[in-house]
């Protein structure tokens, strides 16, 4: 790389985007038991992370402000793609249980999109990151047992779809907000 001819602003942006993805990755894999204990080194973990990042980066333009309206079906498909392609590529050697599950895929993607949205890089994401805190609050305000699940064990896109549909309905009826806006306000109230 010719460092003399690199745009400094582009370098700054690339650095921030890389750091935000790292935060989303860590948030998505915490408590997930994704890796086989003691059988995977940092080099192999990095391969998985970069593989997932490449999938997501290939679709980021779908979320940008000047893109046409994002079809929620495409968002579900991207979550499913992250899960299935990562599982297919790394399951035998690297990932425990049933692979790179839907719960982890949605958390990494939705958290990364949340960061980009907060920076004004993309339009509002169709979903918020689901984790134990968000699911617990949804259960508390709705009394619906569908939210009584562990996000790290969400394995089917259909189950995730059901949870998202119910969450959107609860939030729209109770707060007249989108799921992403509600979660941002809720999360900020927790810190």
Question: Could you explain the architecture of this structure?
Answer:
This protein is mainly α and 191 residues long. It has one domain. The protein has 7 helices and no strands. The chain has helices at residues 8-29, 42-57, 72-90, 102-118, 132-142, 157-175, 179-190. Helix 2 (42-57) packs antiparallel against helix 3 (72-90). The radius of gyration is 17 Å and the shape is globular. The termini are far apart. The model has no long low-confidence stretch (mean pLDDT 90). This is DUF2913 family protein. It comes from Pseudofrancisella aestuarii.
Question: What distinguishing features does this structure have?
Answer:
191 residues, mainly alpha, 7 helices
Write the layout of secondary structure elements.
Elements (H helix, E strand, L loop, with lengths): L7 H22 L12 H16 L14 H19 L11 H17 L13 H11 L14 H19 L3 H12 L1
Helix pairs in contact: 1-4, 2-3, 3-4
What can be said about this structure in brief?
With 191 residues, the chain is mostly helical.
The topology string of helices and strands comes to HHHHHHH
Low-confidence stretches: none
Helicity, as a percent range: 55-70%
Quickly give the structural class: mainly alpha
| Total discrete domains | 1
Average pLDDT across residues? 90
Put simply, the count of helices is 7
Strand content: under 5%
Q: How many E strands?
A: 0
How would you sum up the major sheet? none
Based on Cα principal axes, name the global outline.
globular
Protein name: DUF2913 family protein
